[in-house]
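Table S2 (text version). Query chain:
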Amino acid sequence: MIGYTMVGSKDLKRSGDFYDKVLGVVGAKRSMEGDNFIVWSVTPDQPSFSVCLPHDGNEASVGNGTMTAFNAMSPEQVQDIHAIAIENGATDEGEPGERSPGFYMAYFRDPDGNKFGAFNFTGEIG
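Corresponding structure-token output:
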């Protein structure tokens, strides 16, 4: 059910270097990265791990930049998860949509303020 986890970072380069080494032990390699995030995976069908600079621009702290994402089986299921969350007291943190080619995502915060996402990945990692 869990697709990936993400933690915040104050220094993305330092975190990247650290996790390249630590996660290299289990065969994980960088599978995606951008200006504000890095993702490591072993295979596309296993959960992955990410670090990011918090989207809100504030300093990373425990919880800021941390998110759990649920792996959906289709973009429609991403939309359904997001809609049901909002209907049940969640706040919108990002409408469903394609974030990069083959990566469809939506974000929300549960009633306690915890950040979650739902995603469907149909692209190729690498």
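Notes on Table S2: The longest strand covers residues 91-100. The chain is about 20% helix and 40% strand.
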